[in-house]
């Protein structure tokens, strides 16, 4: 054997070893295909910043599998077609996890694109159960509490804790979320109070801006309901002021799509408004972990998040670290196998579980919040006793 051959072989082995070290030191790319412009920013900005905080914390702890996390971002521009484009852009940059918008309509295309590439996609707070195996594919998960659980939680609280017996259901058709949460609410409410307890139903499109027909029909009811179940969000939140201006003073019960106070400027003295949330933005969350997160968020960004959905973004990064380190890999198939083993995994959003058939959470409760005289306050954490079966 020649000396020259031995030297060449040694150099080749060294090169392979060095390339392996370099690969191990390369960052793991996390791709965010979310709205950075347009009205969906109201729902994506907080979770996006939660992702940033999660990455910062995990990197400070040594990263994942000994590698740092690196965030790359593409703006969907609040456009479903832009969602697919944004996902492809972050995949082209090597994303091994794609984070999608907080809604099935606006985040689903990104998740579908990632799913086709064999890369796990996580919706931060996309709550429609179709964001998952059946609606998108095996590689799609969401950190949200699903609309069946959200709706059941609020129905049970309204019936059992407030003692309300009749309702008028007012549904914004702007997104699958609003239609889904109203549908599951009606199902659980009728179980509790009977079909006759729904004194009326109406729908509207939030982007219309004014809603005289729906408001007139409520005012014309021979007997007014104990409360109005309002399923809306985004541009549709303006209906709250229009209801109050029309003299409709009944309590309004909403969901986490109307969390926060940035939209309340038009109705600064609003009262008798209730909603479920992931946590309180207002310094009174009963969970010290969530309260601490909100304090850190304000310190970092100069203001509280738009909504408590911010913690879902942080939880996505927590879950990624758990799954990747248990799998010993960031491969999509390996991650799916580990996520599907989650059983009451303790994350900042609460106990989190997935299964091969369900990539959304239906067992969590939410924090019931109230607005009185324009002031927000936490009431109580409430967990539903019975959740409608998801329609997949």
Give the SSE layout.
Elements lengths: L2 H23 L2 E7 L6 H20 L8 E7 L4 H13 L4 E4 L3 H13 L4 E3 L16 E3 L4 H15 L5 E6 L3 H18 L4 E7 L7 H8 L7 E5 L7 H7 L6 E3 L18 E5 L10 H14 L8 H18 L4 H8 L5 E3 L2 E3 L13 E7 L2 E8 L10
Parallel strand pairs: 1-2, 1-3, 3-4, 4-5, 6-7, 6-8, 8-9, 9-10
Antiparallel strand pairs: 10-13, 11-12, 13-14
Helix pairs in contact: 2-10, 3-4, 5-6, 10-11
Radius of gyration: 23 Å
**Mass-distribution shape:** globular
- The proportion of strand residues reads 15-25%
CATH class bucket of the largest domain = Alpha Beta
Structural class: alpha/beta
- CATH architectural group of the largest domain: 3-Layer(aba) Sandwich
Neighbour order of strands in the largest sheet: 7-6-8-9-10-13-14
Query: Any idea how many domains?
Result: 2
- CATH homologous group name of the largest domain: Response regulator
The overall strand count is 14
Number of continuous helical runs:
11
**Relative helix content:** 40-55%
Written description of the protein model:
The chain is of the alpha/beta class. The protein has 2 domains: 23-146 and 287-365, Response regulator (Rossmann fold), CATH 3.40.50.2300; 148-282 and 367-382, 3-Layer(aba) Sandwich (Rossmann fold). It contains 11 helices and 14 strands. It has helices at 3-25, 41-60, 80-92, 104-116, 147-161, 176-193, 212-219, 239-245, 288-301, 310-327, 332-339, and strands at 28-34, 69-75, 97-100, 121-123, 140-142, 167-172, 198-204, 227-231, 252-254, 273-277, 345-347, 350-352, 366-372, 375-382. The strands form 3 sheets. The chain has a 7-stranded mixed β-sheet with strand order 7-6-8-9-10-13-14, with helices on both faces. Strand 13 (366-372) and strand 14 (375-382) form a beta hairpin. The termini are far apart. The model is unreliable at 1-22 (pLDDT under 50).
